[in-house]
Amino acid sequence: MTYIVIGICIVLLLAVVFIAAKPIGMGIEARRNINNDYSSEEIYDKDDTVETDNENKSGSNISDEISKLNKLRRDGTLSEEEFVKAKKKLLD
């Protein structure tokens, strides 16, 4: 009798974990997307100020900004397309 009760408890526990796994995964993915959107907007805000101050920047500052963008791309914060777009803004 004890084994039957323990077996039922284990089955119920597995059912709860299985049912809860999908919403938890969706929440984690949503949070990741929000963080990526926020980081991308932050990059574009920096690019806008870089574009207006382009005449005052020296070559080393632009290369520093490109290095920062490259690090963000390697970390996965920026996609390849976003990196190319931001780099083009810096160089124009």
Q: Please report which band the strand proportion falls in: under 5%, 5-15%, 15-25%, 25-35%, 35-45% or over 45%.
A: under 5%
The span between the termini is 77 Å
Note the main sheet: none
Helix content range: over 70%
Task: Name the structural class.
Answer: mainly alpha
User: How many structural domains does the protein architecture include?
Assistant: 1
Overall, the morphology is rod-shaped
Please identify the oligomeric state: single chain
* Order of helix and strand elements from N to C terminus: HHH
Gyration radius (Cα, Å) is 24 Å
Low-confidence stretches: 50-57
Number of strands: 0
DSSP helix count? 3
Mean pLDDT: 78
How would you portray this structure in words?
By secondary structure, the protein is an all-alpha fold. It has one domain. The chain is 87% helix and 0% strand. The protein is built from three helices and no strands. The chain has helices at 2-52, 59-75, 80-91. Helix 2 runs antiparallel to helix 3. The radius of gyration is 24 Å and the shape is rod-shaped. Residues 50-57 have low confidence and may be disordered.
Task: Describe the secondary-structure layout.
Blueprint: H1 2-52, H2 59-75, H3 80-91
